Amino acid sequence: MKKRKLKNKKFVSKPAKVNVKSKKDGKKNKKDGIIKKLKFKSKIKKSGLKKKLEIKNKKPAAKEKGVLEEYSIEVDKAKVKIIIRRDTSGVSYNVYVRDIGIATAALLNEVRNELVSVTTISMNEIMDPGALAGIKKRFMQEASTLLKSKLPTLTEEMKEFLIGKLMQDMLGLGEIEFLVNDPNLEEVVIPSSKEQIRIYHKKYGWLATNLRITKEDEIINYANIIARRVGRQITVLTPLLDAHLVTGDRVNAILYPMSTKGNTITIRKFARDPFTIIDLINNNTCDLETAVLMWLAIEYEMNMLISGGTASGKTVLLNACMPFIPPNHRIISVEDTRELMLPDFLYWTPLVTRTPNPEGKGEVSMLHLLINSLRMRPDRIILGEMRREEEARVLFEAMHTGHSVYATLHADTAAETIARLTNPPLNVPPNLLKAVNLNVVMFRDRRKGIRRILQIAEFEAAQDRAEANLLYRWIPEEDKFIKHSESSRFFEDISRNTGMSQTEINKNLDEKRKIISWLIKKNIRDLNDFGRVMNLYYTDKEGLISAINKNDTKNILGR
Ligand SMILES: Nc1ncnc2c1ncn2[C@@H]1O[C@H](COP(=O)(O)OP(=O)(O)O)[C@@H](O)[C@H]1O
Ligand SMILES: [Mg+2]
């Protein structure tokens, strides 16, 4: 993957020599009363403890030099501290799990063994990803009872931490659960047992962590746990796994010796707080004018293609535009990976493809889903990425039969989009391109690390050729968007579709500018807040505008 290679260059920190896994927390230990202090690393090694219990002597403090950021993450009530630190070898991501000491570890082991015997899990539950929540709840109750009977003096806080830890070790991915639950991380990679776990942090890029899975078997075990959650398996004979978890996260696992250094797991996290159009205006990906133009296009059912290079932000822009769809329209999306995330108000059915099982059975392709989606009476169809001729054909047929269609495709300019569409492998006849009302092209400047809307174009299509007419383009020197040519058909298409005159369209654009500007001013950017405003726009526009005039946020957001 291009993106990864490039970003890897940024990766400068060397993995630490010692496998540091936990932090000593003297105060808490004293309170707990049962935990022996361990003063020296050498002692721990001698004691023959499992690596898991190794302790870091240095106590992290906020004023410690080189600390860039510090926050905590909580999973199943077990809390850990994250410290991002810069030292001579670069920036690193450090997880400090509370040190539980030998005695508590032994006790926990005992509880673990008893838990296995008292809690029964049916085969059905193991295979059902949805059943995990139920199993977890039962486990937590049992664990709580067992811990209470064994250690009546345990503080509530410590008990919760221990239960959380048990859950992660028995049902989850151990300490990786903390990484998966850190909203600042986009990707978590277990490269092999010989290397530190690496993560992609939203702010700092690729970083090494202080965590390492020390045994290859354990990595395989984690891959298996993930596979089981989605009803699949990973074995010597089927050493590749590409799975979407119910959470929307995507996991890829590849076993040794195909991955030559060791077993590798890559978790690509599903964005839980997606960019909205407000974010994209704020970070200058687009501006107010281009945003309201896209809103107008989507409100009035114009078809839109978003092009761009790899990781140029096509999917992000597509997702940011979808809240513009009126709430009473049925939306069906078809993707290979769940990436889209729409506000709660929308009437949306997301579909995802499935790869065949090891026997080559059970595949559900993009084409299957696309054809099926047409039988589901959609108003709007979203295709994650257009790659094959058959998909393109169905999509253009859908446009012709009156659905509005949104899709992304790989091309660097509007002219290249036309070339890509009309040549192999897509082979769309040029005259069909008039069905595309708007083509938005995304651009990513890798050096500056910025993403911009490069062009907004309409297509002028004749029998055997099609051309792009640029309405807007980005000028890099000034980093701004300018109007390029007059539209020859975009506004005409809207007038024809809606019966609106150009004056009415202009008035409509003015209202949109006003609403978006107000949202920017009020920093109302969250997906569901934004969705709520759009919902109001479509159900009670007068009310929305009058509330905006009165600056009445409460009436709009309901809080
Ligand atoms: N406009 C943007 N501003 C900031 N970051 C962005 C923007 N668009 C995308 N990104 C980042 O780039 C990553 C890849 O974007 P994505 O839309 O999936 O690319 P594409 O679909 O073009 O391959 C996203 O996960 C997001 O973190
Ligand atoms: Mg994409």
Would you give an account of this structure?
With 559 residues, the protein is α/β, with parallel strands linked by helices. The chain has 20 helices and 20 strands. The strands form 2 sheets. Strands 1, 2, 3, 4, 5, 6, 7, 8, 9, 10 and 11 form an 11-stranded mixed beta sheet that branches. Bound molecules: adenosine-5'-diphosphate and magnesium ion. Residues 275, 280, 283, 285, 308, 310-316, 408, 451 line the site of adenosine-5'-diphosphate. Adenosine-5'-diphosphate binds next to helix 12.
List how many beta strands DSSP finds: 20
**Total count of helical runs of at least 4 residues:** 20
Mean pLDDT: 86
Quote the distance from N terminus to C terminus: 43 Å
Largest sheet: 11 strands, mixed
Q: Quick summary of this structure?
A:
The chain is 38% helix and 22% strand. With 559 residues, it is of the alpha/beta class.
Features:
559 residues; alpha/beta; 11-stranded mixed sheet; 9-stranded mixed sheet; 20 strands; 22% strand; disordered N terminus; binds adenosine-5'-diphosphate; binds magnesium ion
SSE arrangement:
Blueprint: H1 2-9, E1 22-23, H2 26-32, H3 41-46, E2 55-56, E3 67-75, E4 78-87, E5 90-98, H4 101-118, H5 123-127, H6 132-150, H7 156-170, H8 176-180, E6 185-190, E7 198-201, E8 205-209, H9 216-229, E9 240-244, E10 250-254, E11 264-268, H10 277-282, H11 288-299, E12 304-308, H12 314-321, E13 330-335, E14 347-352, H13 366-374, E15 380-383, H14 389-400, E16 404-410, H15 414-422, E17 438-445, E18 450-461, E19 466-475, E20 480-483, H16 490-498, H17 502-522, H18 527-539, H19 541-549, H20 553-557
Parallel strand pairs: 1-2, 1-5, 5-8, 12-16, 12-17, 13-14, 13-15, 15-16
Antiparallel strand pairs: 3-4, 4-5, 6-7, 6-11, 7-8, 9-10, 10-11, 17-18, 18-19, 19-20
Bound molecules: adenosine-5'-diphosphate and magnesium ion (MG).
